[in-house]
């Protein structure tokens, strides 16, 4: 068992105009100057400035997608192939580059984001293990206003998808399509299908993607070739594109926007409480079940998981307040450490887990 902190990587997207961030040469620190207007001074409103310093595990300014992958993801994926669960989350305001970081840009192959690169790494590394038989599967879930949507099957309605937790605390999302993929190309085709469905949901069903969380999960099962009853490695990597963290002004918004903002604020704040709770040995209750995001991610944030938070910031001077707020969130995550251990199980336990999943699915069918 090793101890691992939540790793925090800051990525600043290139700024079109003036920038509010100064990058320190050690590539781990930044400083930000925030201009503030202080009301009520004797000679009227006066501008004042406040400066902040933040330290992270890694700061990426004008970095390529490849550099981001190396800094944030390749180690997590390598560990997953050794049986450790992993989670990589992109956090930040809308427009800061979360989806660009996770999924990538469409203009060139070089712009591929973390998800396609992770799939590439998984299949390349599995190929290099001739003594192992691998089963790779994927799921793609979207959470919008606390409802669950299957991005790999848009015919599934939110009420058909539910979170089931076994008595041993194993969380499964039942009703969600789990697609077994035999090749990188097959997995990429599904990713593309899911991304397209996310856009369709946005245009036809008014599910604004910047207001939803999406979780692409790669599930890995590795067993010795030709042996039954031996050790099986089971792991999963959750790749999470979080909803925009910007604060929506209550005075300026109403109806749906306000409801969305309420759900987002709540789930991001519960995510923070859960991560802080996991790092606090004295804490008895970690509020995983308080929102769908943390409940779904329960096994991906818990004791045997490597977690990376990519804090996406938009370095334009006009975005300073949100940049400071994202950095503060990310800084709080840096204090968290948790125990990590590999998921090596006997073949019989794999069977127990499969049966638990089947029970969940049957219960789901009975409930419908
Ligand atoms: P978010 O998902 O955080 O709302 P996006 O990833 O959609 O933000 O990014 C907003 C826009 O900025 C997109 O057009 C995206 O292609 C572009 N963009 C974001 N980050 C970068 C980057 N590092 N380099 C180039 N373009 C970027
Ligand atoms: Mg986005």
UniProtKB/TrEMBL annotation:
Positions of the Kinesin motor domain: 5-336
Q: Which residues form a coiled coil?
A: 345-368
The positions annotated for binding ATP are: 92-99
User: What family, per the record?
Assistant: Belongs to the TRAFAC class myosin-kinesin ATPase superfamily. Kinesin family.
Q: What is the protein name given in its UniProt record?
A: Kinesin-like protein
Q: Which organism is it from?
A: Pleodorina starrii
* Source taxonomy: Eukaryota, Viridiplantae, Chlorophyta, core chlorophytes, Chlorophyceae
* Gene behind this protein: PLEST004965
According to the record, which residues of the full protein are present here? Answer: 1 to 368 of 899
